[in-house]
Each structure stands twice: as structure tokens, then as C-alpha cells.
Design brief:
The protein is an all-alpha fold and about 270 residues long. The chain is about 60% helix and about 5% strand. It has eleven helices and two strands; from the N terminus they run H-H-H-H-H-H-H-E-E-H-H-H-H. The protein starts with a helix and ends with a helix. The relative contact order is 0.13.
């Protein structure tokens, strides 16, 4: 089956999500805005909170009864050294996407380190099975297309919980779609060229991704875990994106406010004293 319909659907979804990022939240719902009705220190713009809570509960149940039992069996079946090699292999497959996003974010020093890491692990580390680059002192960076959009001034939009994938946002969900599409098209070590092996590689990638993620649902024991996770994710993304590109706007002259008497008083007050 041709991949064009899938790409068309992906473009439409990304366009809709980015459209939501471009809209400012209502004043009463903006984080940091104090309203008369209520105020929470964990306030995050979450217009789909009812839906997000349902998806969060679904993810918790799927994690508890499907993913975690598979991960536990994975840990019992394979020794630690084999699990580490699997993680190194899949981490190396993500490197070209990280490199591309670092270039798009103008982080050329990080991109150089990432390129050297990929070259070392692919060449001397048996296609990334062994993380030689870390032994060589090359740092590991993370960059995704959601960060790239944020770097270029696209706002986060509303908070969003994705099925299975977990916490996200309008902008980050669009970025995830781009990264997943690019990952499906890029095959740096030829792992996906074997059609018969694709299901096994995809399954192993999913299991390894959950294995590397230490988060466990409801491990805090707090009845406000949804709010805590939402707040922590939002702040984490703010830190990862940083300031980004600050587009300059021409300063418009401000007209003096008030009547003639107030304007005269303001003018007198602004004059230097003799």
C-alpha cells in the first residue's frame, strides 16, 4: 500500500494541531492569570482536561496490565548486558533525527557532537549495539521537532495526553508526528530494509522504550497525580526549549492617557529638576 495517504493524513493532523498552537488561550484560562473564581499553583492551560483525564486513566490501565508485564518478562528473560545492547542499538537509530533537529535549532556544536557520536557507534560499535561514543566522552543530547517548533516561536498550545505515548501538547504532538514519520522514512543502518524483520524490530523498539522509561503511574500515591504530571511535563518542556528565537516587534509610540490635566501633571513630573 502506498504511503501517500498516510503522509496526507499526517500533514492534515499537524496543520490542525499547529493551528491550535497559534491561538492564545482565553484570558481566564491562561497559566499565570489570576482570576476571581480560582487559582492553582499547578495551573496549566488544559482545555481538553476531561478527555485528557480519560486518556490518562486508559494509559495507566494499559501500562499496568499490558506493557509492564511484558517489560517484566523482558527483564527476566534477557540479562542486563543484552538489554543494554538493545537500548544502545535503538538509541543510535534515533541519532539522525536528533541531529536534524539540532541543525534546525541552530545548535551546531551539539549537532557536531551528535554526528561524531553516530559515526563512532555505527562504525566501531557494531551499528550502535555498543555505545563506544560514551566511552570516548562524546555527550548525548536530545532534540525533537516539538523543541524545534518552540525554538522558532510556535507556542505550546493546550496540554494533551496521547494514547499510550502519554503527556504532550498541541505543538509537541505535531512534532511527534513529524519525528515518527521521519523515523519511518530514514533507515540509517538498513535495519528496516528487511521486510520480514520489521514487526520484530518495531515490537522490540516499543518494549525497549517502555523499559528505559522509569515513570510508573500512580507511584506518587497522590490523588493529584494528573495535575502534578501535567505541571512537571509543561515545566520540563519550557526548560528544554529555553528562550528560543525572540522575534522583535517595532515599538509603537504610546499615547498619553488621561485628560489634559493628568497629561500636564505627567509632563511636569517627567521634567528634570533644576
Amino acid at each position: 500500500m502506498s504511503g501517500r495517504p498516510f503522509l496526507r493524513v499526517t500533514r492534515v493532523v499537524i496543520a490542525l494541531l499547529l493551528g491550535g498552537c497559534a491561538c492564545d488561550p482565553p484570558v481566564a484560562d491562561r497559566p499565570g492569570e489570576v482570576t476571581e473564581s480560582s487559582f492553582s499553583p499547578l495551573e496549566v492551560y488544559d482545555p481538553l482536561e476531561g478527555w485528557n483525564r480519560q486518556v490518562y486513566a486508559f494509559n495507566a490501565q494499559a501500562d499496568r496490565y499490558v506493557l509492564l508485564p511484558i517489560v517484566d518478562a523482558y527483564k527476566i528473560t534477557l540479562p542486563l548486558i543484552v538489554r543494554e545492547r538493545v537500548s544502545d542499538f535503538f538509541n543510535n537509530l534515533k541519532t539522525p533525527i536528533i541531529f536534524a533537529n539540532e541543525i534546525l535549532q541552530l545548535k551546531f556544536a551539539d549537532a557536531l557532537a551528535t554526528a561524531l557520536r553516530f559515526g563512532a557507534n555505527t562504525t566501531f560499535g557494531m551499528f550502535g549495539v555498543v555505545d563506544i561514543a560514551s566511552e570516548m566522552g562524546l555527550p548525548r543530547y536530545h532534540a525533537d521537532f516539538g523543541q524545534t517548533l518552540g525554538f522558532w516561536g510556535i507556542g505550546p498550545g493546550g496540554y494533551l495526553v496521547l494514547p499510550i505515548l502519554g503527556p504532550s501538547g498541541y505543538r509537541d504532538a505535531a512534532g511527534t508526528g513529524v519525528d515518527l514519520t521521519a523515523s519511518a522514512m530514514i533507515d540509517p543502518v538498513g535495519a528496516l530494509s528487511l521486510d520480514d524483520a520489521r514487526p520484530a524490530i518495531f515490537t522490540a523498539n516499543v518494549i525497549d522504550a517502555r523499559y528505559q522509561q522509569p515513570f510508573r503511574y500512580f507511584q506518587t500515591g497522590s490523588p493529584f497525580e494528573y495535575l502534578l504530571v501535567r505541571f512537571a511535563y509543561t515545566k520540563k518542556r519550557e526548560i528544554e526549549i529555553g528562550r528560543g528565537i525572540q522575534w522583535r516587534r517595532s515599538a509603537e509610540p504610546q499615547e498619553p492617557k488621561g485628560g489634559p490635566e493628568q497629561q500636564e501633571l505627567a509632563a511636569v513630573g517627567s521634567r528634570p529638576s533644576p
